[in-house]
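Self-study notes.
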Amino acid sequence: MLEPGKVYTVGRSSLCDISLKRTRKYEDLEKEGRLLGRSFRYTSRKHFTLRVVDDCVYAETSSQLKVRVSGSIKVEIKCLSPNGLLVDGREVTEMIIPELGKSVFTLEFGGGEKAKLYLRRLH
């Protein structure tokens, strides 16, 4: 879960907030002693950044739940790598997703790494 206002760095460096080195796929390859394929090397140490911007106005209900009255939750994405970043198949260097709750976005980077970006509703 991403915290509004914080900038998250995504890449293969273990120093990134979201690091491929902390994924199950990487850990499995490391345990098996297999060399990493070229596709992993196409992901830059710091490949892109994400920042969630929550400019919503909320109202509390009698059950202490917050309900969005107005505004939107946006995501700012910035590519830091010469190897590129695709959002829903379109190459971007910088992008603002104006209303995250409307659909699911697919991020593709490196040599075929994929991530889904969506707003999860709490029940």
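Second protein, same conventions, sequence then structure:
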Amino acid sequence: MNKLSTDAAFREAVQSEDIITVAVFKTTWCPDCHFIEPFMPEVEQNYNGKINFYEIDRDELPDLCSELNILGIPSFVAFRGGQELIRFVSKLRKSREEIEQFLERAVQVAETLPRG
């Protein structure tokens, strides 16, 4: 998962019309963020060509996270063409199955929307 460390890099990453971008908001001190690390590479591989994944440290970009109303972590937000499609945000630990269900919903939502 590529890491984005500036607002500008984030805004550029979410502009793609051709592929969904999923921003994963995390922190280094969050145990639930570390819980997902072992299985996320395989999840990312399963969506290769459909979704680009980016990691954002909430503590490094607090203004962006405030703007996007990111409170709980890890949080998953899907974008296409600079527009938010769907988000998976809760204070509870997220399982692999829940993350995969969110990603499937993101793909379904993107397929229903016209491109740029």
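Instructor comment on the second fold: The CA atoms of residues 28 and 51 lie 24 Å apart.
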